Amino acid sequence: NADTAMYYAKEKGRNNYQFFSADMNVRAVERQLIETSLRAALQGGQFVLHYQPKVNLDSGVITGAEALLRWIHPEWGMVYPARFMPVAEDCGLIVPIGRWVLREACEQAKRWIDAGLPPLSIAVNISALEFRQSDFFEEVRTILDDIGLDASVLELEITESVLMRDTESSAAILNNLKNMGVQLAVDDFGTGYSSLSYLKKFPIDVLKIDKSFVDDIASGNDASAIAGAVVGMGNNLKLKVIAEGVESKLQLDFLQRQHCEEGQGFLFSRPVAAEEFAKLLQAHGSKKS
Ligand code: C2E
Ligand code: MG
Ligand code: MG
Ligand code: MG
What we know:
Order of helices and strands: HHEEEHHEHHEHHEHEHHEHEH
Number of helices: 13
Number of strands: 9
Protein name: Diguanylate cyclase (GGDEF) domain-containing protein
Bound molecules: ligand C2E, magnesium ion
Strand content: 15-25%
Helix content: 40-55%
GO molecular function: cyclic-guanylate-specific phosphodiesterase activity
Strand order of the largest sheet: 1-2-4-5-6-7-8-9
Distance between the termini: 61 Å
């Protein structure tokens, strides 16, 4: 920890002390500030969810939304997950924050459904610590029951690296969730371990191809072979494949040719506030027959 590091740095002499202390202090102070502010944020209602559409690549229809956490700090303005999520995970605050996210996203989906908007699925990101909580399963069940939301509307996104950390317990947790009827997605697919055999062991519905592979798609570029191969494999395993971070028409064309079912990215829409998402869904949701 920081104190111990400081102690050893001091032992090594004056120059080292100055070098280490400056570096350690800045990081420790920033971390501490974020942690304290996160506690206040949870109590003070400073979190909001933005929603990014998931789009069927053949029809252009919006099939769902991914809920993405935003922190509206009174002085700093909008803070993105990259800045506070690592701290929230380290100090355990991600657990209560994650519960808030899950409930808020499900309540929002219920409001859209009750308002008669086109059907959709709502995807929520689940971090390692939340996923491994012994009462996570009950938490999900309670939220769905309280709100009266059909379990099949909810999709949980869990990253490949979290699932691979302990495949035995992951399979057990996933099976419990699957039996409840929620949809399960592997997020950032392709970035973790490249073992594919576990895909058959886990009751997964959706593969989200990581943006880095979508970025590699460029005309005549060998790198796009990976994105193509992942789509092909997902299709063969009867999984729904979603490409993350689609930004260009060229990427869209390639993904359509590979029969990738869905996409998400700035080409379609950035993550937007709930009111704005409702307008997108109204205009581009599936037509009810
Ligand atoms: P993720 O789940 O992989 O989410 C996708 C990220 O890519 C989002 O960043 C989204 O805004 C961004 N994105 C989508 N399309 C594009 C595109 O076309 N171009 C580019 N450059 N970016 C695109 P965001 O919202 O900053 O979230 C970052 C990560 O933070 C998420 O990655 C997820 O791992 C985590 N996160 C966000 N919200 C939550 C949450 O409520 N709970 C948990 N546990 N994690 C969250
Ligand atoms: Mg995600
Ligand atoms: Mg992702
Ligand atoms: Mg990602």
